[in-house]
Every structure is written in structure tokens, then in C-alpha cells.
Amino acid sequence: MTVKTESTQLFKEIMGSYPTGVTVITTVDSNNKPVGLTVNSFASVSLDPLLILWSIDKNAGSCDVFKKVDKFSVNILAGNQQEICWTFSSKSEQDRFSKQPWSLSKNKLPILENVFASLECKKVQFIEAGDHYILIGEVIDLNKNEQEPMLYFRRKVGSVPEQWE
Ligand SMILES: Cc1cc2nc3c(=O)[nH]c(=O)nc-3n(C[C@H](O)[C@H](O)[C@H](O)COP(=O)(O)O)c2cc1C
């Protein structure tokens, strides 16, 4: 194993053990078809203005769509939405949006139902970073439901534990 491969493996192990939430980032393509993928690289950036970021693999099927669009929605999954997490990360899933209810917002962005929260964003930056692009979005609309968010840790997803100190 080369040093680079060893470091890559260790990096994956470390980052895969760093707990995160799970989002499905959605938009519509030039034919008005909904597009979305599971993402855990989402993070908050700024309060004034409200900015967030996430990154997309240059090899993702939807990369070109997200390169072109001027807005997207961050759907932060609820703890009981495990199936959605896997549906939107599965390469073999042809019609990801037929598996659960969703609707178009007034900003014409697909919003998945019963998520923990959704942040509709205007894309303000698209930055090349290694084998990914970083997207920075300015929040133009936001909603929160009663559900608790999902947690992702070592390839497993679940709800926030009841005992939490
Ligand atoms: C928990 C989880 C988090 C993920 N986070 C990202 C991410 O931040 N960026 C990314 O490009 N892919 C991420 N993926 C992988 C994509 O969801 C997956 O490659 C998907 O099939 C891409 O869809 P597309 O090819 O239709 O664009 C993640 C997958 C999982 C299960």
C-alpha cells in the first residue's frame, strides 16, 4: 500500500466516524425534472447573510445539473427517514422521487415531506476543490417541522438517542 492509499483509507475511517446529520439536496433540471442526492457534507457558514455549504463529487450523476442551476433546497432528514437516505444515494434507483411524498415550493424547489427542516437557497458560489465542488448557498426560505433530525455514524443512520446530555 502506498503512503497516499494508506492516508486515504485513514482519512475515510476518521471522517466516516465523525457523526453528522443527513440531508437530501434537491433542485429541478432544465426539463423541470426533480433531481436530488443524499449529502452529509452540509454545514452552516454565516449568519449575516445566512449562508450554508455542501460539496458534490465531480463524478456524481447530478453534478452538471447543480453546476447549472441557480438554486437548490437542503432537506434535513428526520430520524425515521432512513429509507430516503438510501434511496437518494443509490445509483440503481431510477426514480428517487416516486418513493416518498414531496411538493414544489413557491420557489419551485422540491421539498420532501416530513423532513426535520428545509433550507431553500440561492447558489452564490461554486468552487472547485480537489475531486469535489463546494456549493455555497444563501438561505432564501426556511421551515422546521416537529421531527427530530437523523444522525449518521459509521455508515449507519438513526435517531437522536432519548438519553442525551
Ligand atoms: C450518508 C451519505 C452521505 C453522502 N454525502 C455525499 C456528499 O456530501 N457529497 C456527494 O457528492 N455525495 C455524497 N453521498 C453519495 C451520494 O448520495 C451518491 O453518490 C448518489 O448516488 C449521487 O447521486 P447522483 O449520482 O444522482 O448525483 C453520500 C451518501 C451517503 C449515504
Automatic annotation (TrEMBL):
Protein EC: 1.-.-.-
Chain segments annotated as coiled-coil in the UniProt record: none
The entry's keywords: Oxidoreductase
Name of the molecule in the record: Flavin reductase family protein
InterPro entries: Flavin_Rdtase-like_dom, NADH-dep_flavin_reductase, Split_barrel_FMN-bd
SMART domains reported in the protein's UniProt record: Flavin_Reduct
Molecular function as annotated in GO: oxidoreductase activity
Domain Flavin reductase like as annotated: residue spans: 15-159
Family to which the UniProt record says this protein belongs: Belongs to the non-flavoprotein flavin reductase family.
